[in-house]
Amino acid sequence: MAEYYSDSSSDSEFNSRNAEDVSYSELSTIPDHLIPRAREIRALKLDHNQILLLPSSISVFVNLLSLDLSNNHLTHLPKELTSLRNLKTLVVKRNGLTCSSIPKDFGLLSSLEVVNFSGNALETFPAQFTELSNLKYLYLGGNCISEMPNSIKNLKRVEVLYLGGNRLTEVPAEIGQLYMLAALILCDNHIQSIPPTLIHLRKLQSLSLHNNQISTLPPEIVRLNLSELSLRNNPLVNKFVQDMTYEPPTLLELSGRVVKIEKVKYSKDDLPKNLRKYLESAQRCVNPKCKGVYFSSRIEHVKFVDFCGKYRVPLLQYLCSPQCRTSPAVYHSSSDTETDEEEVANAKLRKVLLG
Ligand SMILES: [Zn+2]
Question: How many whole angstroms from 121 Cα to the centroid of ligand 1?
Answer without folding.
Answer: 51
